[in-house]
User: What shape does this take?
Amino acid sequence: MTAGEKAKAKTEQAKGKTKEALGSALGNDRMAAEGQAEKSTGDAREAKEKTKDAFKH
Assistant: This one.
């Protein structure tokens, strides 16, 4: 996993988690859903990079 992609994945996960929590706290279902989607995108990016690393070795 390249450092840039790893950082991007972690940033997406953190932003999504924060946005999801804020949306839930404010009762804003749309914001919570957007946060969950961002977090899922970060999770998918991280999984993709881990898979690529597994096949490199």
